[in-house]
């Protein structure tokens, strides 16, 4: 065997993967094929944030995309997998500010322009890290089309969308209660708020009636907001407080008179039935305030400290102010009680701090018209098809209940809002560019929510708003989106309604929704738990192919997957099994070329069986790939490769390879090459590195598996009779081996083997192929006949159409054999009971399809025959004993 085709004795992923990715890039294998007659297939990568390393969730998400795009490329589609990254406004700015803070510098020291330069430097550094990680994972991305959410083309798209939505009155500016992040000093949308259960309290206090006639009891979880109270409210039908409506109370600590109002918002059954109204610090109070024309008093600064309207508490942190307010209320006799409790409190997804509901002037997208169109589209032929389809309901429910989207962020890093205000008149102008006399206008300092630009990702990356762009014409709408279920609200929904609004098309035909990566205990991976796994560390130890196999093989659409090193060991072992099988094939085909591969001659039953099983595997795996059921596809591949090819066919091929028939050898070598070649093609989308390494060392045509043809079924190679016969033969061999193991008789020791057949076809088949029984069972005497009388003392196995007996005088304990058979009889008793229970159920018999009922009847017949045979054998042994 030539040295260059020799495989090392052990699979070493680091050596195999080293340099392979760059070779693919140098060959331009990841770009579209340019065949205009081919059907296009496109995917845009969910753009990772340029804030650091990719995690296992990214690895899973991108591995699934790569599996899809590699298979489609091999199937002849004109494929485009477009890479890119997201500027991640809040997260990236926070990272850069932290870095500057270590040097004692704030962004305000630098000013907006120089600070943005610092962030661009950060972006370039971390973008290169992400590309290195993509390369390690083997992602077949077209880097010539890489995009960034702040590049010029995407910025044009963002401005156009903003202006068009504004002109249609779907974007507006207004003063509303929003979620405020005091650390990042920016607004957040509802879905950027994570609710966590924390320990808190209800603080009960008394507000005195101004006329001195009494007090009313109020309870709140945020005493610091009372400084901004502008009313207290009762339900208009609450008889307890009818006389108080229209009166006033004196606001404790502020010595301010505020009215008692009636509003149906108040729940008469909750607490005292009296609530404080703080329009500037609570969304429900804001609505009440609008109905009653109440003033809005904002008592907090952007950083969560109290402002000048908070009186003596001005300058204090909100939580420090809370403690002092409670202490002061207690001192003045206004604190009734403190009721400890656990409650759900909103935290910023980005910075982790407690979110403050706060009055603010922001930009909003009016969601109702856009949501209605998205829901309507899901009932049409243009609908996005979700996998699993239950996520369609998740999407529709979200759109039915969606609130207006706050899109402005008080940041410097991002798309600055294209609105300008006249320096003298205050007039507002919204447009693609600044007004002509720009020196008299000041641009809005806010930037747009990061999700605003990423919502345009499927079409802005293709060249839109230039609808004549060749990529937009060719690859949009995209084919498949792959993402996790926790991002449906953030991103998937927004891509759908923005794409419908601006292109009239769904952004993608399919949305494959996968789960989350969890640790061995089922916990979500997080920094706080310290249970995160760096995919680069996993690749360093096991290789990218093993990681990709684990991620794909654990992949059922919509389901979470648990990471464990035990599973990674199993993935590596599977690849090592393929490696060793390939090594055996390569060692036995030295000198063969593609032209030598010919199996048109006479084939053994093992040859015909493996070709049949290959066809079945190709058909099943292709069907499963089309449904994105990669986990089940992996199981099909594993069973075929490990069991059928490695454990059975390769072992059976030795019967020919070590024989004297040169023609038979050539046929078997050809089939070994053909099956291995197809295995490598089937596996390549999942584990590209090792399959390419092996494929280069077997007879092949073409420059790379990346662009090789994907396997297809060859009906002419299928032989159902051989397949059925082989299953019987395998069961016979397996049963004999099991019996040998039970009585500690090694395969090297010859035995007497009696095979009683009850089916003429099976009898002929076993006699014709007795050479395999000789090889794998090592009998010194072998009898295959329908006329065998079972010996008095023997180990036995009862199969469908076959009874196996190993006379073992002196080697068997009759009591142990009877015990074993009684256990087997119990199994058949249960099977008979189960199947007869089904067949005696009139509802099953009348409602089940005829073929299903018939299958159960066939099982009953088979189980009764086995039950009878085992029972008779037990009686026979008891007689002997």
UniProtKB/TrEMBL annotation:
Identify which top EC class this enzyme belongs to: ligase
Aminoacyl-tRNA synthetase is among the record's keywords? yes
Which residue ranges does the record assign to the Valyl-tRNA synthetase tRNA-binding arm domain? 813-877
**Pfam families annotated for this entry?**
Anticodon_1, tRNA-synt_1, Val_tRNA-synt_C
Question: Can the keyword Cell wall biogenesis/degradation be found in this entry's annotation?
Answer: no
UniProt-annotated binding residues for ATP: 527
Q: How does it assemble?
A: Monomer.
Protein family: Belongs to the class-I aminoacyl-tRNA synthetase family. ValS type 1 subfamily.
The name this protein carries in UniProt is Valine--tRNA ligase
The record lists the organism as: Enterococcus larvae
């Amino acid at each position: 065997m030539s040295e260059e085709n020799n495989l090392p004795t052990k699979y070493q992923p680091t050596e195999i993967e080293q340099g392979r990715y760059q070779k693919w890039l140098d060959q331009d294998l990841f770009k579209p094929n340019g065949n205009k007659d081919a059907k296009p297939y496109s995917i845009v990568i969910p753009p990772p944030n340029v804030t650091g390393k990719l995690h296992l969730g990214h690895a899973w998400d991108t591995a699934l995309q790569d599996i899809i795009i590699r298979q489609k490329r091999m199937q002849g589609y004109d494929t485009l997998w477009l890479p890119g990254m997201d500027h991640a406004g809040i997260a990236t700015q926070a990272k850069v500010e932290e870095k500057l803070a270590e040097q004692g510098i704030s962004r305000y020291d630098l000013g907006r322009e120089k600070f943005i330069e610092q962030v661009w430097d950060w972006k370039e550094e971390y973008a290169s890290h992400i590309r290195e990680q993509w390369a390690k994972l083997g992602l077949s991305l077209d880097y010539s089309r890489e995009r960034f959410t702040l590049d010029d083309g995407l910025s044009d798209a963002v401005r156009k969308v903003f202006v068009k939505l504004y002109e249609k009155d779907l974007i507006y500016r207004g003063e509303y209660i929003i979620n405020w992040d005091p650390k990042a000093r920016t607004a957040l949308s509802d879905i950027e708020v994570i609710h966590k259960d924390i320990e808190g309290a209800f603080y009960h206090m008394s507000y005195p009636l101004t006329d001195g006639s009494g007090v009313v009891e109020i309870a709140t979880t945020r005493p610091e907001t009372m400084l901004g109270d502008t009313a207290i409210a009762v339900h208009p039908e609450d008889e307890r407080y009818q006389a108080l409506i229209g009166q006033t109370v004196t606001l404790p600590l502020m010595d301010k008179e505020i009215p008692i109002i009636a509003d149906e918002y108040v729940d008469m059954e909750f607490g005292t039935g009296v609530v404080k109204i703080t329009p500037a610090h609570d969304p429900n109070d804001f609505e009440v305030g609008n109905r009653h024309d109440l003033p809005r008093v904002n008592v907090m600064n952007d950083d969560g400290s109290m402002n000048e309207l908070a009186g003596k508490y001005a300058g204090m942190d909100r939580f420090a102010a809370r403690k002092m307010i409670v202490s002061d209320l207690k001192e003045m006799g206004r604190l009734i009680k403190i009721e400890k409790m656990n409650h759900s409190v909103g935290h910023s997804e980005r910075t982790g701090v407690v979110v403050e509901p706060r009055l603010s002037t922001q930009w909003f997208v009016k969601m109702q018209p856009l949501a209605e169109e998205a829901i309507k589209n899901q009932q049409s032929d243009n609908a996005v098809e979700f996998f699993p389809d239950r996520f369609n309901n998740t999407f529709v429910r979200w759109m039915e209940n969606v609130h207006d989207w706050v899109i402005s962020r008080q940041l410097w890093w991002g798309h600055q809002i294209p609105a300008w205000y006249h320096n003298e008149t205050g007039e507002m102008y919204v447009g693609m560019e600044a007004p002509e006399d720009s020196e008299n206008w000041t641009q809005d300092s806010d930037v747009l929510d990061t999700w605003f630009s990423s919502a345009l990702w499927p079409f802005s990356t293709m060249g839109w708003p230039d609808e004549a762009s060749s990529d937009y014409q060719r690859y949009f709408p995209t084919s498949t989106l792959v993402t996790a279920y926790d991002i449906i609200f953030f991103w998937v929904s927004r891509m759908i309604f923005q794409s419908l609004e601006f292109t009239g098309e769904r952004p993608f035909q399919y949305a494959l929704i996968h789960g989350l990566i969890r640790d061995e205990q089922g916990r979500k991976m997080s920094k706080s738990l310290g249970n995160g796994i760096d995919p680069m560390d996993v690749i360093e130890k096991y290789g990218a192919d093993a990681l990709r196999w684990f991620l794909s093989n654990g992949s059922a659409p919509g389901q979470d997957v648990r990471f464990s090193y035990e599973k990674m060991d199993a993935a590596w072992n599977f690849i090592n099994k393929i490696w060793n099988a390939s090594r055996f094939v390569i060692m036995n085909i030295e000198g063969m070329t593609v032209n030598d591969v010919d199996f048109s001659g006479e084939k053994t039953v093992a040859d015909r069986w493996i070709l049949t099983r290959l066809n079945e595997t190709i058909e099943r795996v292709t069907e499963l790939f089309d449904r994105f059921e990669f986990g089940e596809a992996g199981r099909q591949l594993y069973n075929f490769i490990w069991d059928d090819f490695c454990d059975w066919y390769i072992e059976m091929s030795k019967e020919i390879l070590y024989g004297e028939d040169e023609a038979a050898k050539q046929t078997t070598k050809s089939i070994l090459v053909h099956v291995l070649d197809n295995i490598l093609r089937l596996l390549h989308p999942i584990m590209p590195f090792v399959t390419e390494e092996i494929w280069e060392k077997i007879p092949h045509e073409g420059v790379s598996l990346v662009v090789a043809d994907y396997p297809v079924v060859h009906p002419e190679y299928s032989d159902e009779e051989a397949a059925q016969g082989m299953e019987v033969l395998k069961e016979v061999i397996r049963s004999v081996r099991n019996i040998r193991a039970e009585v500690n008789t090694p395969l090297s020791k010859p035995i007497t083997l009696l095979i009683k057949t009850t089916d003429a076809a099976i009898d002929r088949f076993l006699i014709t192929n007795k050479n395999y029984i000789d090889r794998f069972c090592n009998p010194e005497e072998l009898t295959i006949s329908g006329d065998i009388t079972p010996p008095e003392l023997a180990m036995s196995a009862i199969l469908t159409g076959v009874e196996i007996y190993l006379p073992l005088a002196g080697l068997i304990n009759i009591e142990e054999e009877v015990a074993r058979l009684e256990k087997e009889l119990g199994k058949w008793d249960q099977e008979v009971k189960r199947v007869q229970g089904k067949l005696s159920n009139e509802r099953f018999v009348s409602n089940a399809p005829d073929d299903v009922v018939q299958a159960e009847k066939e099982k009953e017949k088979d189980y009764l025959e086995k039950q009878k045979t085992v029972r008779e054998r037990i009686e026979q042994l008891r007689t002997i004993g």
